[in-house]
Write a structure and sequence with these properties.
Blueprint: E1 10-12, H1 16-32, E2 38-44, H2 45-54, H3 56-64, E3 68-73, E4 85-93, E5 96-107, E6 110-113, H4 117-120, H5 131-141, H6 145-153, H7 157-177, H8 192-197, H9 205-225, E7 229-231, H10 241-252, H11 257-277, H12 282-285, H13 291-306, H14 310-322, H15 340-361, H16 369-382, H17 395-398
Parallel strand pairs: 2-3
Antiparallel strand pairs: 1-7, 2-4, 4-5, 5-6
Catalytic activity: L-serine = pyruvate + NH4(+)
Protein name: L-serine ammonia-lyase
EC number: 4.3.1.17
Length: about 400
């Protein structure tokens, strides 16, 4: 399994697979053809259907600048593609083709280059590739997950994750300070600042918790929708869940930056397992692969922060993902706004609830995290294509810019 650094990428929104991945591919291809006087990008599948809403064309032109770049939204049937997020990049010089590559943007900002197997294989950091294997290793050597991570990643992983946490913190705090309308034409107003500033301490503390956690999730997700700087966890579209939970418990539990780094590390393990053994791509497996995995990461992080044992941590992650199975990806007009922002807030609360359930019921469970990952992946493959980030099904089909 690859390093947990792989799951946390710092970049700008709104989409890891539709903007970060294609932009990364464009920079790589541009550097390979410095003599080109024109580039062309042909988008297929989900990249074509929702690329305008996600800003794929903008991201590609920015990456190729100052060289001219033509972006084509292909209507070719995507069923012949290996991955629904596929694009061709072509370099030209004085009207003659210099070269081309086919790229798959597989989620979380990662790309696969067709025909370049060596480039596609990231360095392996962990020998274990399932949670069952991780659990066996930890039990045999009497170590917990934090010790296991440090044994494989080295002690500098915690400094890296503290840096990740600082970016997450800024995204929460900047989001809480902003007002106005999000770009894209849906006339969606930012809500995080209003929600946070109107918290009323009542005799119902659970409502206060909900309002705080949700305002933090809204803050990060609104930053993402407005092309702000965020951290994939595991993707841009699901970037609000994990920081919302940790930002809330940092003060409530008086957690240090190192405590937070440990929680992020444990969360990263579950995210990497999902990326390796299933998917974190909404275009491949629906929103269960994005917000569902984010919820499992946040639940695991909360359990680590609470001092729960390894079985409780796994159970919380499993419960979170299990109850997102079948969740479709249906962004209205291809924008990461509705239902995405609200969905991050709901998932943040579900992560906390899953952690609470795990405290009491871990010994009664029947389903493992590895099992629910397989189930999520097969459910995603069985899901109708319209519900996998095409903006053709679900809410995206019913709602228009006029609200009809």
């Amino acid at each position: 399994m690859r390093s947990i650094r792989d799951i946390y990428k710092i970049g700008t929104g709104p989409s890891s697979s539709h903007t970060m991945g294609p932009a990364r591919a464009a920079v790589l291809f541009r550097d390979e053809h410095p003599e080109a006087d024109k580039f062309q990008a042909i988008l297929y599948g989900s990249l074509s259907k929702t690329g305008r809403g996600h800003g794929t064309d903008r991201a590609l032109r920015d990456a190729f600048a100052p060289i001219e770049a033509e972006v084509i939204f292909s209507e070719e049937d995507p069923r012949g593609l290996k991955h629904p997020n596929t694009l061709d990049l072509i370099a030209w010089r004085e009207g003659k083709e210099l070269g081309r590559i086919r790229i798959e943007s597989i989620g979380g900002g990662d790309i696969v280059i067709e025909g370049r197997e060596e480039d596609n294989q990231g360095e392996e950091t962990y020998m274990e590739n399932s949670f069952a294997e991780i659990l066996q290793f930890c039990q045999y050597r009497y170590v917990d997950l934090v010790e296991y991570i440090e044994m494989n990643e080295g002690p500098d992983i915690w400094d890296y994750l503290i840096g990740v946490w600082h970016v997450m913190t800024r995204s929460v705090e900047e989001g809480l300070s902003r007002t106005g309308e999000l770009p894209g034409g849906l006339h969606i107003q930012r809500k995080a600042k209003y929600m946070f500033e109107h918290i009323v301490e009542t005799k119902h503390p659970e409502l206060v918790e909900c309002q705080k956690v949700c305002s933090y999730a809204y803050a990060v997700s609104e930053q993402n929708a407005d092309n702000g700087t965020i951290v994939t966890a595991p993707t841009c579209g699901a970037c609000g869940v994990l920081p919302a939970v940790l930002y809330y418990f940092k003060d409530k539990r008086n957690l240090s930056d190192l405590d937070i780094a440990h929680a992020l590390g444990v969360a990263g393990l579950f995210g990497e397992l999902a990326k390796r053994n299933a998917s974190v791509s909404g275009a491949e497996c629906g929103c269960q692969a994005e917000v569902g995995v984010a919820c499992s990461m946040a639940a695991a992080a909360a359990c680590q922060a609470f001092g729960y044992n390894i079985h409780q941590i796994e159970y919380a992650a499993e419960v979170s993902l299990e109850h997102h199975l079948g969740l479709t990806c249906d962004p209205i007009c291809g924008l990461v706004q509705v239902p995405c922002i609200e969905r991050n807030a709901v998932a943040a609360m579900r992560a906390i609830n899953s952690a609470n359930i795990a405290y009491f019921l871990t010994g009664t469970r029947n389903i493992s995290y590895d099992m629910v990952l397989k189930s999520m992946y097969y459910t995603g493959l069985d899901m109708n294509q319209r519900y996998r980030e095409t903006a053709e099904g679900g809410l995206a089909r019913i709602y228009t810019r006029r609200g009809k």
